[in-house]
Amino acid sequence: MCLTFGYAQKQTPSTLKFTNDLQNFTSLTELKKALRGVEIIALGENTHGLGEVFRTKAELVKFLHQEMGFGLLLFESGFGDGALAWEQLPRLSAKAYTKAFTSNYYYHSKEILSLMNYVKAKAQTKQPLLVQGIDCQPQQGYLITQMQQLIDPIDAAFANTIKRKMREFNLLYHHEHKKDSVAFYKQRKQFIQFINQCQKYLNDPQISSKPANKANIALIKKTLDGFKKTYQNIPYGGMMSWPLAYNIRDKAMFEAVQPFRKKYPRKKIIIWAQNSHIENIPKPNDRVQWMGHHLKKTYGKRYYSVGAIVYSGRDLRYNKTATFEHKKTDYLAYRLEQYQQTSLFINLRSNPQPDFLSKPLLGMESNGNEAVFAAKTRFDGILFIHHSDIPQLLKE
To answer: What is the pLDDT of residue 13?
Structure first.
């Protein structure tokens, strides 16, 4: 039995099915029972470059919003981009908003645009779906544009340097890669000095006193405070070394979720991120404390993580594509492929289930890397997809 989504917008019937035991395959409406008591659900993606994963996750988001009252969608994307773009949602087209709310170019796709069309359609209703970002990384294009526009009237020369200064943050990665700690700490100091200067301009009465500017200024200042908290004391090795760099970033993302919980205590949350960020426990031999570890420890059964597994397809990896198919029995995707389903949501909290779900098997991770894990302990659910092509990127 397949689910047909009943939205006002024209939709293609979904092939996504639900199962507790890999024996009985029903409509997604059964997911409601599995998610009783869940306040935060995290939808993973094994790598960022799979369009069918985006499309299926978008359909899940719409279902969770429409049928289960989840009202806040948090992306693995910049906090500043997300917050500022949301303020401009009524004045932006769906396409412009898709490109504004995130600087992750993988998400500048038709699959995400479909979801943002839905977000815009619901924005003025009694049940809006709020979209925000939780990532602390400063590579945020819309944030930079808004900072330039605010500061330009009082110091055009400084405003013209903002994009370059923000991009120079990436030199921290370069200096670590070159093993140059002196240059690393010099660049860190320069970046924080630049952030302080931006905050000083944002407090200037010439711009801060204008009512039209107040919301954006508050959001930018909050974003800049986040940069300072995360990076002003970051040690050499904190940008790239394993596991330190990921511990820092994922702790910051976890901490970014908490204010949303406080601000919207009645809204159930959807998190959209890569599989590792949302997992419940570490993979074997992985010493990173990912965001999901903090969420599971904090919220227990109220947190439900969904890992994405894809059997075959084409993956977009930066500016290249790679073809993959998991034909060997030691891959989780191969085992799931034997059930001959196009797309499937598996509730791993149910028992009994096939033994292979509790045994270590291989899975594809970001950019074609691989990891061994037991599905039933790493995640609460699995989103299995038979085949995915690359995202359909939006044209200018």
So the answer is: 54
Give the per-residue pLDDT at 9.
45
How many CB atoms sit inside 10 A of residue 329's CB? Answer: 11
* Residues 56 and 343 sit within 8 Å (Cβ to Cβ): yes
Euclidean distance between CA atoms 185 and 196, whole angstroms: 17
What pLDDT, in 10s, does the model give residues 67-113? 999 999 999 999 999 999 999 999 999 999 999 999 999 999 999 99
Q: Return the structure tokens found at 366.
A: 């970001």
> Are 16 and 51 spatial neighbours (Cβ–Cβ below 8 Å)?
no
Measure Cα distances from 86 to 35, 72, 78, 212, 255 in Å. Answer: 28, 12, 12, 15, 20
pTM over 0.85: yes
Q: Which residues of the chain have pLDDT under 70?
A: 1-13
Whole-number CA gyration radius for the chain = 21
Cis status, amide bond into 128, omega within 30 of 0 = no
Across 182-319, where does the E strand assignment appear? 268-272, 303-317
* Cα separations in angstroms, 280 against 184, 286, 292, 330, 378: 33, 13, 5, 22, 5
C-beta separation of 60 from 16 below 8 A: yes
CATH 3.40.1660.10 location in the chain: 16-137+267-388
pLDDT attached to residue 396: 79
Question: Which CATH number among 3.40.50.10540, 3.90.780.10, 3.40.50.2300, 3.40.1660.10 corresponds to the domain 16-137+267-388?
Answer: 3.40.1660.10
Residues 6+ apart with CB under 8 A from 292: 42, 277, 278, 279, 280, 303, 305
